[in-house]
Prior knowledge:
This protein has about 475 residues and is mainly alpha-helical. It has one domain (about 65-475). It has helices at about 5-10, 10-15, 50-65, 70, 80-85, 90-95, 110-115, 125-140, 155, 160-190, 200-205, 205-210, 220-235, 235-250, 255-270, 275-295, 295-310, 315-325, 330-355, 360-375, 385-395, 395-420, 430-455, 460-465, 470-475. The longest helix is centred in the middle third of the chain and has 32 residues, at about 160-190. Helix 19 (about 330-355) packs antiparallel against helix 20.
Amino acid sequence: MTHVHPTREDGVVRGLSEVVGGPVGDHAGPPAHPPAGRAAGGGPRVTVLGVLLAATALTFALGLVSKAACAGQDWSTTDPSRYTHVCVSEVPDAWTGEGLAELAWPWSGDAQTRQRYPVTQEPALVGLWTYATARATHLLAGAPDVEDRYAAAPGDLASEPDVVAERQVFAAVNAVGLAGSALLATLALWASRRRRPWDAAVLAAAPVLALAGFVSFDLLPVVAVAGALWAWSRNRLVVAGVLVGLGAAAGVWPVLVLAAYALLCLRDRRPALLLPPLVTAVGVWALANAPAFVSGRAQWEVFWTAAWRRTADQGSLWFVLDDVAGLDQALVRGLAWGLVGSWWAGVLALVLLAPERPRLSQVALLLVAGVLVLGPTYEPEQALWLLPLAALAHPRWRDLLVWQACEAAYLALLWWWRGGLLSPGSGGSAGFYWLAIAVHLLGTLWLVAAVARTVWSPRRDVVRATEGLPAQVTSTRSTRVVV
């Protein structure tokens, strides 16, 4: 075989493979001279990439099917079944909630527009994405005259039959775009590993991808990060910077992948290697933000102000503490980000003291996880952030399934709680939701502990064992970054 097969390497996958005949054999592989387009058995030849892309498409499609109840209610934001059926999505909500039905520019300073709709609180690239998909929706809907819609109140407009139908089209257009992003992310992860292409299945078959892939627009920075990891695996530093810049314009957190690269440069005492991706990332980020900044600086600043002012909110440890003790929110912000900074300092110490230079995906996962564990808020779709990093950092299915099971449980409990199914009859504290937060935190910490252990004890790292990395990684003369 030319690559590592998970049924032979991973105990969990090997056990599951017994259902379909057991692990792949020692001599499995294509014939020496197969007929064109045919495999040895006479059937069509199936490639690893083909299986991975098919799995990604199926996983995302299952996620869309799970949203059928909400789609059947025309994505109504008032129907409680959106919570009880766990099919909430912010994607179609943007159609009428942000004025896209009227083709309102997300950062418009027009007084009438701002009176009718709030400024978008999405990053610049997401705002551009939603505006572009809104334009596509209008074209598909026959280019309706938006001038007539200004006379109706936004609440009344949202219930008009034409607008409701267009919201369905808008959701479909974005579903196609986000599905394409998931496929591109899988492709990038597959291409990042020559001998371990099946590691991309961590994203392709992820329950989190099905449950949260269409909740928001977080797959946009995810695909950028996956592409940046591929670029680093090929030592294309400028391309990596471009993709990090695009990811940061769509979600900010991809900056931490660049920070992980900076820590590795610091360990190697080669800070000059940071300049190509850093300069290109800043430049691309500025270009992506330019349309919003130039057209409405005050509106562009709303996202950054809202992000900084977020207080103890759903999904975080601070939500529980605030529910118990009623914390001052300014204190919560200070403590939360102070602890995140301490977490990052611990990651720095681990990188500098590790016996071998850590892999980029390992360091990036540890940095991002600090925000998810200790940040002041945690949205269910944020679990997607770790998917491309986990696929490359720790392709061990036992630990990954534990983490994803915890995230799936958290998401279900969150929506049921918000739908009133788990609210205590006495009106007291949200005990079931506290349990959900604890499950999410334990699952993420489990994954963090597994990755940190392989950084501290490289012999446990299955990627090093199959790629023969130690000799390459310890050489500070090499500019190659192992992802």
